[in-house]
User: Fold this.
Amino acid sequence: MTPQIHRISIALLVLFGALFVNLNVLALISGDDLANHPANRRVIVREYAIERGPLVVGEEAVALSTPTEGEFRYRREYPQGPLYAHLTGYYSLVLQRSGLERALNEELTGRPTEVIAQNLGELLGRSQRAGNAVELTIDARVQQAAHDALDGRTGAVVAIEPSTGAVLASYANPTFDPDPLSSHDPRTINEAWARLQDDPDRPLLDRATSETYPPGSVFKILVTAAALEAGMDPDSMFADEAVYDVPQTTADIRNFGGGVCADGNEISLADAFRVSCNTVYAELGVQLGDEALRAQAERFGFNHQPPYELSVATSVFPGDLDTPSLAQSAIGQRDVRATAMHFALIAAAVANGGELTEAHVVDQVRDPDGQPIARAQPGRWRDPPGSGTAVSPRTAAQLRQMMLDTVRSGTGTAAAIDGVEVGGKTGTAQDGETPTAWFVGFAGDDVAVAVVVPDAGAGATGGGVAAPIARAVLRAGVEGR
Assistant:
């Protein structure tokens, strides 16, 4: 019996030792993680006891907390739901958070690390404070204009203040209503989520920031910049051909409509830009070369993720291009991809003398007493080569003039506004069954815009589909400024 008792004693000691180690691991190492895990019901109840601060556009809350009865003291509501859904995101018992509700959670709950007084007050037993109000840079008139101008089409619009990078509008369609996702009834949340997940139109996808598209001829802005930076000027002449015989392939490049762009003899770079001449730009891309085009694209931020409060997909200019790929990439086809947000920043850089700014949508944060505790600090986008200088002021001025001429008498006339200096570039990317239509431009120094309409319809063009949308948004932006 003695050996058996000895073995049992050893086994019990081992078990008690393991239990002791496990309890210490839980208490000392994993305690904070477990206590603050989003699935911990006590965490959820504690968080829903806070009057979460509003997200504010102008003087109107587009996300706010309202008192309720029951275990969860506040419910999140979105008075204009779908209009701002991709910006606000949702705040949900089941799904947790998305959009600005996630990115700004500490500010909205009143617990950013810099607000020491608030945290100290809670530690000393003061009653629960409300969260902080976050005021957005969005201009309600511009956001509404984007919604109205898209008129139910699938697509996206981004408008930016050129000098600061403040986002005036960011709207994508299809969109969704965040209100059912913020219900206190898990069944309601799950049913709404299932419908959104099953929807083939993918309404949860923010096409303004999270989807990249072939830019088509709006990429000619960057090719033109590379040419001007290399020493060419708007009067540089090129052969005016209906077909560019691409070296190393039988897949030649033709102009829209199949003809020449001018008289069939010669055409200037400025006129080739104004009428969006594919044959000139395919030849120009090959002439400039792979390294020069990529370097210029990267100075405009390609192959770098744009800084922004929300995640933005990276626009791509591919590497190691052979000659046929280079010719196609120079007209914004092949594997070149970009977001609407990024091209709004590019248009802003042209309007801003060549300076590439960081986009931001938070203007300032105010505490529950209305006192400002944080404010936006506009600055250059310093990640790409060039430290925020995409092109020289001289090149920016030349590009600006070429974009103005495009709206006055080129492919972008549908974006013109009486009495306003509007510049832009159209794009029609042949990708899929129907084209992707683009317009990228600016109105004076007040607002820059990018519009993308994928699957725009048979025969659609950027000038016919995207430019009128941009016109409505630019008009609202100018009036708002």
